[in-house]
Predict the structure.
Amino acid sequence: MDAPERHPKIIVGVDGSDASVSALRTAATLAGPLEATVEAWACWDVPAGFGLYLVVGVEGFQYAAEQSLEQALTAAFGPERPSYVHTRLMRGKPGELLVEGSRSAALLIVGRRGHSGFVPGSVSSACVSHAHCPVLVVHAPDEERARARGADGGK
């Protein structure tokens, strides 16, 4: 018996930023021609210096990440999420988790300068430097317009 046909997987790092919403839209645009599924990953962890939360509980951080993921999906797709888009909520450092996840992906898409809580651009830099598949870094729409104005002298 033949093994079931597997579709390529596109992983998208989602942190709720405008860039990650653009990354979701980009993934949806590419998924059709590639016959791929899209996994929207939201990663959360307890920030350094928040040891008290380890005693009291970390539900607030997890809940915030989950809400951010849902809001980004709604911003990208409206109330009806495409059937080929799935979600994963994971605890850990976003850069490390996304790089590890890239082992099973055909493409990794991340936004530039999101809300990860790390040095701006560090997650996308880690992914570009260490991923096991091609990486596409997507800018927020405002960043794209600003760059275009700069390139054409503001016209």
Q: What stands out?
A: Strands lie at 9-13, 37-44, 85-91, 107-111, 135-138. The longest helix spans residues 59-77. The chain has a mean pLDDT of 83. The helical segments are 18-34, 51-56, 59-77, 94-101, 122-130, 141-151.
